[in-house]
Every structure is written in structure tokens, then in C-alpha cells.
Amino acid sequence: MQFKNIAFIAILSILFFTGCGDSKVNEDGKTEAKIQTKFQLSNIDGTTFTINKEGEKLIFDLPEKKIVLLNFFGTWCNPCIAEIPHLNNLINKYPKDLEIVAVSLDKKNEKQTTNEALESFKNKYNIQYKIVNSEENYKLASALGEIKTIPTMFLIDKKGNIKQKYTGVIPEEMIETDIKKELEEK
Question: Alpha carbon of 129 to those of 33, 44, 55, 125, 185: distances in Å?
């Protein structure tokens, strides 16, 4: 019986600390994305904003300058779903200092997942942060280094510097420590 418990914990740990892979994430627009520096992202609520890649910086055209957690995810990815409550906790703890932008890398039958399907997903899991959905998502993913595993997140300071990259499900406390560190460096 103890062997079964150890095996169960080992399998659960592997699932929890790894991500989901999708070989199709970066196939579209691969060449364009390497030279593209401006990305127009569409929120599922119909609003849009721009991210400018300036060298190693990502400059967000958002109304307020905040720390940004850029989260690449898929609705079919169990580790992505597992991190939602933790991301909700962080956005609620730091509403004035943190913006979370979830970038959908979902495609069904080679077509972009609809905003309605993502809205349903958002409601089902009570997601309290932005979700963007467009073909530009894949170009941005490619420009940031051919994202092959999701969830993948980038912590970006208020000046646009990428301060941290996380692959797989990361403990909330670890991300919060990095957020606090960035807030102290104001």
C-alpha cells in the first residue's frame, strides 16, 4: 500500500511540475514572428492593446504601468487549469501593481478557438484577469523564444524588462516573492 502512495505522489508531482506540450504552437508565422516587433492582442471582451518588443523589452500599451505576468496557456492543459486559483490570488493581492495577461494558444481543427468558448472557460474557472485570443498570440509566442511547453509565464517589470521566465506550474509563493522583489525595486 505504501508503494502505491509513493507512486501516486510521484506521478502527481510530475504532472504538477511539468507543462503540456503542443508541437503546433509555433508552426504558423514562424518567419514573420522573428522580425515582427509589434503585436496587436485582442481581449475576449473585444478590446485590444499592443505589445511592442524593443530588443529584450516588452512594452505594453496599457492604461497603467504595472508589473505584467504574461501567461501562455491552453484550455485543454491540466497544469494550466491548476494554476488559475493561484493567479486569481495574485491578481487580488496586487490589483494596483500587477496585470495578468493570459495568452491563449488554443486551436481546434486548425482554427482559432472562439472568444465565446474562452469566455465560457473564463466563467467556469472564475478567471479574474485578461485573456487574449488572436493569431498574433502565436507570433508573440514565437518571438519570445519558440514556446513549446505550457504553461509558460514571463514576469515583466514596469519598464518592460523580462525579469523571470517560468515553465510548468510554479508555486504561488515563488511568483509572489518575485513580484515583491520587483515592487521593492521601484
Answer: 25, 11, 27, 11, 24
What is the number of residues in the chain?
Answer: 186
Task: Give mean pLDDT, residues 115-136.
Answer: 93
CB–CB of 141/103 below 8 Å?
A: yes
Categorise residue 93: left if φ over 0, alpha if ψ from -120 to 50, beta otherwise.
alpha
At residue 15, the pLDDT reads: 41
CA distances from 29 to 26, 61, 143 (A): 7, 23, 10
What pLDDT score does 25 carry?
A: 43
In the chain, the amino acid numbered 146 is E
How does residue 19 score in pLDDT terms, banded at 50, 70 and 90? Answer: low
pTM of the shown model: 0.79
User: Quick one: which H or E segment has residue 81?
Assistant: helix 78-82
